[in-house]
Design goal:
Length: 106
């Protein structure tokens, strides 16, 4: 997976170092958001709903990226982004289902 990213980045002239740096910064921001959202003693429903929020953000990110792939010459890049988008949509669907199941138990 990482090799494919590097290969695509090189083919397209992307700055892989910058991509990795932005990715790390985003992960740190997400960790802070999680701490703020969940607080010290989150219950299961809060945790599941935060997970839904995070998955929703991932779906949005890959939807936007998918719209950009039309301008990129690499077919591998477009296929990879669409594959990840499908995975993220499945994650969101699963999280939503779990949150609904959990709230109906309470
Ligand atoms: Fe995900």
């Amino acid at each position: 997976m990482e090799d494919l990213n590097k290969e695509i980045a090189e083919d397209e002239g992307f700055d892989l170092k910058n991509i990795n740096s932005v990715s790390e910064e985003t992960a740190q921001k997400a960790a802070k958001m999680m701490e703020t959202y969940l607080g010290q003693d989150p219950d299961t429903q809060e945790a599941l709903e935060f997970l839904c929020l995070a998955e929703g953000a991932e779906v949005t990110h890959y939807e936007v990226l998918s719209s950009v792939t039309k301008e990129v010459k690499s077919r591998k890049f477009g296929n990879k982004v669409r594959g990840i988008l499908k995975e993220e949509q499945n994650h969101l669907e699963t999280c939503t289902k779990l949150a609904k199941q959990n709230i109906s138990k309470e």
